[in-house]
Each structure stands twice: as structure tokens, then as C-alpha cells.
Amino acid sequence: MEFVIKEFISRLTEDDINNFALKEGITLENDELKTIYMYIKNYWQIFYKEDASYLLNELKEKLKPNTYTKIVELLNKYKKK
After folding, report:
1. With the C-alpha atoms ordered 42, 47, 29, 77, is the resulting torsion angle positive or negative?
2. Whole-angstrom Cα distance, residue 18 to residue 69?
3. CA 47, CA 23: separation in Å to the nearest integer?
4. Quick one: CA dihedral 34, 78, 76, 19, positive or negative?
């Protein structure tokens, strides 16, 4: 499964993230989009396998409260799958 995720992440674009966010009812500002993209590209394995609470704390400072809350909800939802 990890290989599939790695391949998906390698092809992921900012447009993909923005489109997914819109489907989930999130409107991202440009700086939020760039931040989320960077965190996904660089830290996906930590979000996937480890305790990412320190990364989430960093994101909490960089994102709008509503955006942050929704990201945490989505992360928890997809980690369960």
C-alpha cells in the first residue's frame, strides 16, 4: 500500500489539492495551498505512519482555523481507512 501512496504523492499537484479541498467544502487561499502542498510532499510518510501532532501544530499556526479543523477531520477519516 505504501508504494501506491508514494506514487500518488509523486504525481500530486497543487491543482489536485485545491480540487479536493473544494469538493470537501474548503476554499484555500494561495498561501494555504502552497503550505499544504509542501507538507504533503515532504511529510506524507509521517502523516501516514507516525504521530504527526507536531506537524499539525505547525499547520495550526499557518492555516485559517476552519481550514485547519477540516484538515484534521479529513486526516483522521482517511487514516482509519
Report:
1. positive
2. 16
3. 21
4. positive
The structure's pTM equals 0.92
pLDDT in tens, 3-29: 999 999 999 999 999 999 999 999 999
Of residues 39, 1, 33, 35, the one with CA closest to residue 17:
33
In angstroms, the CA 46 to CA 20 distance is 21
By the 8 A CB rule, do 41 and 11 touch?
no
What are the cell numbers at 81?
481507512
Task: Report the chain's C-alpha Rg in angstroms.
Answer: 12
Cα dihedral angle (6, 30, 66, 7), rounded to 10 degrees? -10
